[in-house]
Design brief:
Elements lengths: L4 E6 L3 H12 L3 E7 L3 H9 L4 E2 L2 H7 L4 E4 L6 H10 L4 E4 L6 H14 L3 E4 L6 H11 L6 E9 L19 H17 L2 E9 L10 E8 L4 E7 L8 H5 L13 E5 L3 E4 L3 E5 L9 E5 L7 H14 L8 H20 L5 H8 L1
Parallel strand pairs: 1-2, 1-4, 2-3, 4-5, 5-6, 7-10
Antiparallel strand pairs: 7-11, 8-9, 9-10, 11-12, 12-13, 13-14
Helix pairs in contact: 4-5, 5-10, 6-7, 7-10, 10-11
The protein binds nicotinamide-adenine-dinucleotide (NAD).
The site of nicotinamide-adenine-dinucleotide (NAD) has 22 residues, from helix 1.
């Protein structure tokens, strides 16, 4: 019988508790302890019969950890991940990898020096349909990719905004939600090299945006748009379209459209459209269902993390890769502020 892996969880809030439950449900690993200074986390740990520490370094020093999940507020990711690397403990860091590109660069250097693996929690990449879309585009099944449409349109409940930071810059759709879509689009279509952006707070009037429209240019020459709003009853968002999270009622609607010279693909509906014999706008279009397997991406992420800890797999989302997603977000923020076109590469250079 193999000894279960001992995994610590730093930050036991909304997503940290989900990680605890997934680890508890897995026969191959156990929760070695939680680090979180809040009374709620202490009560949660007690109910689950798990040791609780108020500081992540106590957890690192007092429990013999094989791996650590970091699910604390963004500003703490860097310190916690550096401490894990310093103790030789592989980490799964929730997204975004850190709060700034400059911090991500620091972490990247530490990972490179130490060789201790760090996986970043952009868990949607573990969804088989995201992997399938990436493979179909890479295989050239759509021909040359020309245009991409992404939508993230839904309505957050009014009491979501009772929490002060959600009304402030950084607490809105761009950093909290579109970061997932940007990461998905980078993974599926390749690097984003230029962005333009408009944001608006006209619905709620808070300091943070409620709506954003982005123009994206990809390294392969494709261009795209990503439009987001958290103030509209609509079915077109990864949350409602993918059925990935049972908390959101699934709608059979696409939220991404990928257009190529030989065909087009919708996601998560997974419809591949192409011509058979003749082509042209009056020729009949054939629709093929190219559905991929259904798998809980959070459970798959944990399986992958265990393999990363065991040394049999390398992180699907490295610190360097996740830093690319964060650089696009910082480019979007600068583009929205200045009205200029901004390259994520420029953001990386400025942060170095
Ligand atoms: N992958 C996803 O889909 C997803 C979803 C939600 C959140 N997240 C990410 O997970 C992280 C946490 O988000 P959340 O929504 O769970 O936030 P949350 O506010 O619900 O939880 C954060 C927890 O961290 C704890 N904490 C604060 N200071 C700490 C410290 N010094 N040491 C240890 N714990 C500390 C808090 O007490 C709280 O329990 C963020 O980075 C967020 O972006 C990812």
């Amino acid at each position: 019988m193999t000894i279960p892996m001992r995994i610590g969880v730093a930050g036991a809030g909304a997503i940290g508790r989900k990680h605890v439950e997934l680890i508890e449900a897995s026969p191959d690993c156990v929760v070695a302890g939680i680090a979180d200074p809040s009374d709620e986390a202490r009560a949660f740990a007690k109910a689950h019969r798990i040791s609780c520490y108020s500081h992540h370094r106590q957890l690192l020093e007092q429990e013999k950890l094989d791996g650590m999940v970091i699910a604390s507020p963004n500003a703490l990711h860097l310190t916690m991940a550096l401490d894990c690397v310093g103790h030789g403990v592989p980490a799964l860091v929730e997204k975004p990898v850190t709060d700034t590109v400059a911090s991500a660069q620091r972490l990247q250097r530490a990972v490179q020096r130490s060789g201790v693996p760090v996986l970043v929690g952009h868990h949607r990449r573990h969804n088989p349909m995201v992997k399938a879309a990436r493979e179909r585009i890479a295989d050239g099944q759509l021909g040359r990719l020309t245009a991409v449409v992404g939508l993230w349109l839904l309505k957050k409940p009014d009491d979501y905004f009772d929490t002060a930071w959600r009304r402030e810059p950084g607490g809105g759709p761009v950093l909290i939600n579109l970061v997932h879509d940007i990461d998905n689009l980078r993974f599926i279509c390749g690097e984003i090299v230029e962005v333009q952006a408009l944001v608006s707070n006209k619905v709620r009037g808070f300091a943070v945006e409620d709506t954003a429209a982005l123009l994206l240019k990809f390294a392969n020459g494709a261009i795209g748009t990503l439009t987001g709003s958290d103030a509209t009853p609509a079915p077109w968002s990864w949350e409602l379209s993918s059925g990935e999270n049972a908390a959101y009622p699934r709608q059979n609607q696409p939220c991404y459209l990928f257009a190529g010279t030989n065909g087009s693909l919708s996601l998560p509906t997974m419809e591949l459209w192409s011509y058979r014999d003749q082509s042209g706008w009056s020729a009949p279009l054939a629709r093929a269902d190219v559905s991929a397997a259904v798998l809980d991406p959070l459970a798959e992420q944990l399986r992958h993390f265990r393999a990363v800890v065991a040394g049999s797999e390398t992180p699907l989302i490295s610190v360097e890769d996740a830093m690319g997603t964060l650089a696009v977000i910082e480019a979007v923020q600068e583009a929205a502020r200045t009205g200029a076109s901004v390259s994520p590469g420029q953001i990386m250079e400025q942060a170095a």
